[in-house]
């Protein structure tokens, strides 16, 4: 054990921190692993244990303080491009067959969809333009 240089131990620590990074997908483990690599570089350059620990702490804390808030801000943003059924919400459709609280047909995005009125007491006649407010399975909820 005493024959192994300190930089090797730091790299082993970095690899060990990479395991929970992959398993839990918590980026903080990756930032600590980068700090361990910085400490390995300090050890490889011949600095003492105090400088190695300070390099580990400084790099790890700096990464967590800078990168984590940026990553959190990006994870809270909604996708800029709506796809799938989310892209259909809010679009206008043309009533093909009378739509009421029990059903009907509309033309939405060039396709024929089954539809149901949001307000069960309301009905829409063929030729009327309606707004899609929700998609439930293969049925568009319109108003």
TrEMBL record:
Keywords associated with the record: Membrane, Transmembrane, Transmembrane helix
Membrane topology (UniProt): Multi-pass membrane protein
Highest rank taxon of the organism: Bacteria
Annotated localization: Membrane
Pfam families, alphabetized: NfeD
Domain NfeD-like C-terminal: from-to ranges: 86-142
InterPro entries assigned to the protein according to its UniProt record, in alphabetical order: Membrane_assoc_protease (IPR052165), NA-bd_OB-fold (IPR012340), NfeD-like_C (IPR002810)
Residues spanning the membrane: 6-23, 53-71
This protein's name: NfeD family protein
Natural source organism: Streptomyces andamanensis
Lineage of the organism: Bacteria, Bacillati, Actinomycetota, Actinomycetes, Kitasatosporales
């Amino acid at each position: 054990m005493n024959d192994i240089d300190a930089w090797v131990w730091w790299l082993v620590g970095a690899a060990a921190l990479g395991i929970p990074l992959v398993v839990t997908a918590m980026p903080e483990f990756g930032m600590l692993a980068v700090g361990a690599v910085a400490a390995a570089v300090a050890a490889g350059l011949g600095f003492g244990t105090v400088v190695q620990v300070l390099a580990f702490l400084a790099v790890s804390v700096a990464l967590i303080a800078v990168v984590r808030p940026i990553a959190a801000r990006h994870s809270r943003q909604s996708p800029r491009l709506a796809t799938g059924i989310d892209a259909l919400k809010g679009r206008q459709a043309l009533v093909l067959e009378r739509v009421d609280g029990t059903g009907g047909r509309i033309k939405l995005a060039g396709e024929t969809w089954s539809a149901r009125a949001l307000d069960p007491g309301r009905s829409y006649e063929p030729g009327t333009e309606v707004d899609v407010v929700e998609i439930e399975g293969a049925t568009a909820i319109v108003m």
